[in-house]
Amino acid sequence: MKMFMLKSLMLASLLFISVLFGMQQANEGIQKMKGYEDPKFKSAFSIKETESGTLETAILGRDISSHDLEQKQKQLEKMKAFNLFSSMGKKLANGISSVMEKAVELITGK
To answer: Does the keyword Signal apply (predicted)?
Structure first.
């Protein structure tokens, strides 16, 4: 189950990066087709290094920083939100996993 989740996460990450790359290529193609740079068009993904040596990241024109991610994580921890669908999914996955393990044990005779 762990390998399935790992493979699924890697596939989703690869697809996300591919979409960002495709959007960047489309943006460059539009600029080449127009023949000039339009300040309204922004790149899909950009990384800039500041004078202090830190990196600034922007995805689809929105600045992303580690401070924002930490703040969101603290907010989620403060909320202690209960996700009904998540807990139902975990129970369903555990149930199916145990049923399949027992089926494999019956078939293989272990």
So the answer is: yes
The Cα 74–Cα 4 span in angstroms is: 29
Q: What is the pTM of this model?
A: 0.35
The answer to whether 46 and 58 are in contact (CB under 8 A) is: yes
Q: Where are the alpha helices (DSSP H) in the chain?
A: 2-34, 66-79, 84-108
Q: What is the mean pLDDT of residues 60-66?
A: 67
Query: Which two three-digit tokens encode residue 96?
Result: 């199916």
Matching residue, tokens 């009904």: 84
Residues with Cβ within 8 Å of residue 76, at least 6 apart in sequence? none
